[in-house]
Amino acid sequence: MHKPYSNKAWLGVLPVVLVVAFSAVIPLMTVVNYSVQDILDFNSRFYVGFEWYVETLNDTRFIDAFKRQLGFSFTVLAIEIPLGIAVAKGLPKTSRFTPALLILLAVPLLIPWNVVGTIWQMYARSDIGLLGVAINAMGISYHYSSEPLHAWLTLIAMDVWHWTSLVALLAFAGLTSIPQPYYQAAALDGANRWQIFRYVELPRLRGVLIIAVLLRLMDSFMIYTEPFVLTGGGPGDSTTFLSQHLATMAVGQFDLGPAAAFSVIYFLFILLFCWLFYTSVMRRDNE
Amino acid sequence: MSVITLDKLCYRYPGASLDTLADIDLSVAQGEAHALLGASGAGKTTLLNLLSGLLSPTSGRVLFDGKDVSTRTGYARNVSQVFQFPVLYETLSVADNLLFPLRNASMSKANRQARIDYIAAEFALEGLLDKKPPQLSLFEKQLTAVAKALVRPDVSLVLLDEPLTAVEPQVKWRLRQVLKKTQADLGVTMIYVTHDQTEALTFANKVSVLTEHGILQTGTPTEIYQSPQHEFVGHFVGSPGMNFLPSETLNMSKGDTIGFRAEWLKLKDTGVHFTAVVSAKRDQGTQKGRPYVLLTLETPHGQVFFRGCADVAQGAKVGLYVTQFVLFKEQRQVDAGYI
Fold it and tell me: Which positions in chain A touch B83 (Cβ < 8 Å)?
């Protein structure tokens, strides 16, 4: 069949191209542009090639922040995914309380990031916070503002509190979509609870869990507001993650060139992690 | 492989004001292929769930080999089930799917493998053993599901819940052939639940017709077709269903309604029972060189169908003779015979 050919059709794509250009491509390219320049002030700037990239990758503060970031992201993932599945499994599927429980679960997701940070900042304070005072009253010394380990534990607890619901809600949606005959058949086969989870539920949760892991991986890798409000990156720089380190460079010290190089590397890492995760999952599917 | 007996089985859903099933009595012999035929809403699914142990009867008993298993789980009853769509463990290979029901059984590893090989051969699944369900066609998946239901050598009852629903129409008959063959080969007791009379009549040794009023008749497919015990059975089974006319048409006083199949009618010129006008005609081929037709006839007492060899045109007036009949009184059969 002869297909009509018209270059005018390209005009139809133009609005999208413009929107994407202004919202994504141009800002990103600005950053890329900055990352290859040394900017003293807006009138004196020099092209420096990949110097900032080399410097950033060799910067021990960047490397430390990167390690902390990895530690944080994988710790919260390792807790939130299993815990979210467990919560979803524990929810009654058909009960008159189910809607109320779902709404209750969604509450932490509706709270703005810096409010979450503030809540935990106060909640965990060892002088006036309910949690901090309670722990200290039990005879356990707990001071998140001075002890790096305590600061870490508090941050992780906060993130788990904030985001486990997301995983739980996704997993719950996945669980309720499993047709009843699968459970019936497994029961007739004499499958125990673990086998039902392993061979009936988990394979059918795969899709939503991939989404959950991707969302939490990207999001936790970009975490900024909550640690900023809770610990300010401290004590010392023990809870300074990538985004906070970046903010200090760009806004605090106005090192636009290195900060831009940092941003590009940061962006590429998130992209890389998600791509690695996604392709490894999809490759297993095709096997 | 067991004798299945239902004894005055009743079931009422919690909160319901009426029994979904009331006083169901049924006996299924060992190794029998039994079809439960019923329209939707007749309680087929409820009965199935009572047999599979998903529900426990409100009153009455379910007996397997004379043993009361009413409150036992389906696993304890050794029941297996095939569902409307293929239910398999999607991440396991066909071989592992077949192994799954055996892994909790007390069997040696060699015996398990031997059993799987035997079942795979029976269902011609040898080439698929290493594949996973997503790589299979719908037909192969359902075939695997049936094989999985039959893999346990101690299975007492295999329930089939409209197993051909999801399969492509072109291969339905193939799956039905495989089902019939393996049922005969393995001698398992099977209960096949369906609303499709063709499936029921071609698959089963015995058919039970289930309605909201209980089981109306249990019998061989021929009995069900030739000698319905209840008007509904005659009406429900057969395509078209049985013709019914007031018994006065044939001067029969023992009952109130006379029933006859479309092919029990003869076209005659003299000595007829009644006359009718041909209102519609459908050709169904030829037999011995004469056109074989399905006629819709308008009689003074109502509409009837005729099937057989006839060379008549639409609008023609014909004389009809009933050669075989079933007589009903208050919907129950009171007499049957030839004229």
Answer: 181, 184-185
* For chain A, percent of residues with pLDDT exceeding 70: 98
CB count in 10 Å sphere of residue B291? 14
* Among B residues 66-85, those touching chain A with beta carbons less than 8 Å apart: 73-75, 79-81, 83-85
User: Chain B partners of A200 at a C-beta cutoff of 8 Å?
Assistant: 89
Residue with tokens 């009023």: B213
- Residue B136 to chain A, least CA–CA distance (Å): 14
Phi, psi of A189 (to 5 degrees): -80, -5
Q: Whole-angstrom Cα distance, residue B69 to residue A70?
A: 57
CB A189 to CB B75 under 8 A? yes
Task: Look up the pTM and report it.
Answer: 0.80
Which candidate from B81, B92, B105 shows the least CB-CB separation from A185? Answer: B81
Q: What distance in Å separates the CA atoms of residue B241 and residue B197, rounded to the nearest whole number?
A: 11
Higher-confidence residue of A253 and A97: namely A97
- Chain B residues near residue A191 by CB distance under 8 angstroms: 100
Poorest-confidence range of A78-92, A188-202, B102-116, B315-329? B102-116
The tokens describing B161, both together, are 């819940």
For residue A140, give the 3-state DSSP assignment. coil
Shortest distance, CA A209 to any CA of chain B (angstroms) = 16
Name the fold adopted by A60-286: MetI-like fold (1.10.3720)
Q: Copy the structure tokens of residue B141.
A: 């998946």
The distance from CA A66 to its chain's CA centroid, rounded to whole angstroms, is: 14
Domain ranges of chain A: 60-286
SS3 B244: strand
The structure tokens 């060892």 sit at A126
A vs B, Cβ pairs < 8 A, gives 45
Segment A124-140 mean pLDDT: 86
